[in-house]
Amino acid sequence: MPTPDCEEFRFHPNREVSSYPTNARVIDDPKESVKASVERLAELQEKLFADNRYALLLVFQGMDAAGKDSTIKNAFSGVNPAGFQVFSFKQPSLKQLDHNYLWRYWQAMPERGRIGIFNRSYYEETLVVRVHPEIIENRQLPHKTINEAFWQSRFEDFRNLESHLDANGTKVLKFFLNVSKEEQRQRLLRRLERDDKHWKFNPSDVRERRYWDEYQHAFAETLKHTHTEDSPWYVIPADHKWTMRALVAQAIELALRALPIEYPEPADDDRLEFDSAREELLAQGR
Predict the structure, then answer these.
(1) Pairing of strands 84-88, 233-237
(2) In the chain, what is the straight-line distance between the N-terminal and C-terminal CA atoms, in Å?
(3) How far apart are alpha carbons 87 and 66 in whole angstroms?
């Protein structure tokens, strides 16, 4: 069986994030590839749900307009809504700030048998927070010294969290949607030029572009220190949307196929109940 195209974009710790392309049309017909993957994902998700021993957590990160929403929408267009959950994390509430910084994410972890999707995640704590350290300075924390040890401690938190999840049956898969600065500019302009896209435009998106280099450094450091074999990062080229969606769908399918999930076998007592129920139903049709 040939190696899936998505494996080309699985992060490697000895490779710089900046060396990964933002535009790589490696699939001949990515739209058809997404369609085929969606059909297979629907079958795998049903088996995951029926097995009820494992869960899958998918983390999506990227710059504004990278394509997180549309990728999630297209990759899961055929999945039973009862089998997956999507959470988008905005600015934390006062209640959430009164707990440790991972508390609100822990509340949203997927149940066994389900796929959980984080549209942005706890990784914002080493991305936007690293670019804007004043966020930490304004929180009621006992230790506010922002140095390299601070960030390394957070990376360790993430690794430990994901190791715990993996040991307890939740597979974690992380996607950095790698959009170029020029493509992001064009997408933001389209949001301004189309009435049906105005709702998606936020003036802060343009302000954050001023920190492009700082964000790229934060992403590079985060991926380098939090990629593990059990909870990998994928650096997905995001300039071509259908290629991005196809590669993400491939990676999700690959992760689900690697899980030892099966439809549960009924117990002997259950089989007797089935036989009795079958006889009763057949008799009703005579």
Answers:
(1) unpaired
(2) 51
(3) 17
Beta bridge partners of 116: 57, 85
Both tokens assigned to 218? 């934060």
CA distance 115 to 45: 8
Question: ∠ at Cα 243 (58, 237), nearest 5°?
Answer: 70
- Of the candidates 21, 31, 28, the one whose C-alpha atom is nearest the C-alpha of residue 249 is 31
Dihedral (CA of 21, 26, 29, 33) sign: negative
pTM for this model (two decimals): 0.94
Strand order in the sheet with 170-178: 84-88, 115-119, 55-62, 170-178, 233-237
- Beta-bridge partners for 170: 55
Tokens of 275: 């036989």
Per-residue pLDDT of the chain (286 residues; tens, 9 = 90+): 567 899 999 999 999 999 999 999 899 999 999 999 999 999 999 999 999 999 999 999 999 999 999 999 999 988 888 888 999 998 899 999 999 999 999 999 999 999 999 999 999 999 999 999 999 988 888 876 889 999 999 999 999 999 999 999 999 999 999 999 999 999 999 999 988 878 878 888 899 999 999 999 999 999 999 999 999 999 999 999 999 999 999 999 999 999 999 999 888 888 889 989 999 999 998 7
The pair of three-digit structure tokens given for residue 18, joined into one six-digit string: 């900046």
CB 83 within 8 A of CB 113: yes
